[in-house]
Amino acid sequence: xxxxxxxxxxxxxxxxxxxxxxxxxxxxxxxxxxxxxxxxxxxxxxxxxxxxxxxxxxxxxxxxxxxxxxxxxxxxxxxxxxxxxxxxxxxxxxxxxxxxxxxxxxxxxxxxxxxxxxxxxxxxxxxxxxxxxxxxxxxxxxxxxxxxxxxxxxxxxxxxxxxxxxxxxxxxxx
Length: 174
Prior knowledge:
Blueprint: E1 2-6, E2 14-21, E3 27-36, E4 41-47, E5 60-61, E6 69-80, E7 86-95, E8 102-108, E9 115-118, E10 127-128, E11 130-133, E12 155-158, E13 165-168
Parallel strand pairs: 1-10
Antiparallel strand pairs: 1-2, 2-7, 3-6, 3-8, 3-9, 4-7, 5-6, 8-11, 12-13
């Protein structure tokens, strides 16, 4: 089975999606594509390519990445097994969609059809897609909340007695 996982997509920031595998036992070949709305996500790069599978740039076709599609193909001469939840690779995007929009990254057969083979047969895989809501960026600056301060000017008050002059504060309404 294959799964996509990520953090929170924040407008105009980098958004990383992990592609993970479970029940990856004695496989000789695997292929699929990822799809997304290119109006919400812009493909930037790939990283954390699985070393046990000896993945490199040649395992990916980024020709259609600007259109929201990424193809992945892997094969080996000898069977390979991975621990459950192993990271296959990480996809880096920039979030270009609007705040509040739902965005999705999905496994798809466009442009590459699903195919998985082990030492005995062709396999059928299960997939877990990803759907998130784009959020506003948060500040990395710290602010300290301060109570509102009110100042009242000193008033010159004249008492009924012409000999007494004093300054007094205007009473606060709070």
